[in-house]
Amino acid sequence: MQDDWQAILEQAPYLDRADALVLIEYLSERGATDEELSEAAKTGTLGPLALELALRPPGELVPFDAAVQEAGLELDEAATMWRAWGFPDPREPLIKVSPRQVQALQILAQMSRSLLGRETGLQLARVIGSSMAQVAEAIVDAFRVKVEIPRQDEGQPYSEVVKDYARIGGVMIPALNTALGDILTEHLLAVSRSNWAVDEERAAVTRDLVVGFADLVDYTRSTRALTPAELAAAVTRFESVAGEIVARHGGRVVKLIGDEVMFAVDDPAEAAQAALELIDALTVRIGLAAGPVISHQGDYYGEVVNLAARLVKAAEPGAALASESVLQAGSVAAEPVDLPPLKGFDEAVPVYRLTR
Asked: Which of 30, 107, 163, 223 is surrounded by the fewest CB atoms within 10 Å?
């Protein structure tokens, strides 16, 4: 059999030949075809192939077009949903899918047809795909930096590293999938209990929130002197500290945008306290605004968001500026600040600096 793998080994000159042979034999024993081995060797993905084999769901893989037809789905409909998840077109080249993947397509297609409508169903698919891609990238990158690279630096054979992470992944990832489902359920219940309304056209959900932006001071200049490791550590600390403080005050971080974090809190007093704690913990400037926001795909839009974004740009380092609506909605200590008209606002907006 080893003679049959010589052509495959020729495509993986980046690996030690003896170690590559051990790895190819291991993959073959776990069901990899010669075609899969050849492609993985050529593209440098023998390791990921081991993880794929460990996680491959039961059941025969079927060509995409035949699978969706058997499931009662239109080919174009299924392909569009697949792309909405963030994957390449499944027809060019034609891929093979598992029964579970087809079932997932069926579930979302049925939700779209009977409940949400096609466009809203695709929007939901995009949110799911984007969120899962972010989770996947975080898991893989963390493993590579914390496990794979250190073990290889210690001189351990690549084949042994691959065997271990395939074994661990085969156990941990299914368990993680269950945990992700439980976390989703808790978030669904929490969101369903929150206050909400609809716009005048009854086309979008609105929520009354305090929206905040926290901007790291001198981020661009300081990052020029940082190594990639130092930059990663700085961003991790920023996101971690911001997330912890905001969550402690009943809010959530909506997104991280480079050197800026956007967060949302229900209660103005809690939002103000979170802003002051962020200033104590980090070198930031902050803008806060309160009122109805448009909730769309897990993000927020509207005049309140725009105002908070303008206020953070106008704030001095170590200061938190708030709109008048933040003070009107809760018990918040602040002092008035004179500012020129903010960009995008025709008239001067009353602005206040949060105090202790």
From this structure: 107
- Whole-Å CA distances, 67 to 55, 71, 105, 284: 20, 6, 11, 52
Strands 260-265 and 205-216: antiparallel
Measure Cα distances from 283 to 78, 275, 321, 334 in Å. 48, 12, 15, 20
Q: What is the mean pLDDT of residues 118-134?
A: 91
Q: Which of 324, 275, 274 is nearest to 304 (CA)?
A: 324
Phi, psi values for residue 150, rounded to 5°? -60, -40
The H or E element spanning position 328 is helix 324-329
Angstrom distance (rounded) from CA 216 to CA 30: 49
Helix axes 34-43, 17-29, angle to 10 degrees: 140
For 174, residues 6+ apart whose C-beta sits below 8 A from its C-beta are 55
> Within its chain, how far is the Cα of 39 from the centroid?
29
Neighbouring residues of 25: CB distance < 8 A, sequence distance ≥ 6: 1, 2, 5
CA dihedral 195, 196, 197, 198 (to 10 degrees): 180
Q: How far apart are CA 20 and CA 234, in angstroms?
A: 37
Per-residue pLDDT band for 1 (boundaries 50, 70, 90) equals very low
Q: Nearest Cα to 97, choosing from 131, 68, 135, 120? A: 68
Global pTM reads 0.81
Phi/psi of residue 230, nearest 5 degrees:
-70, -40
pLDDT, tens only, 274-300? 999 999 999 899 999 999 999 988 899
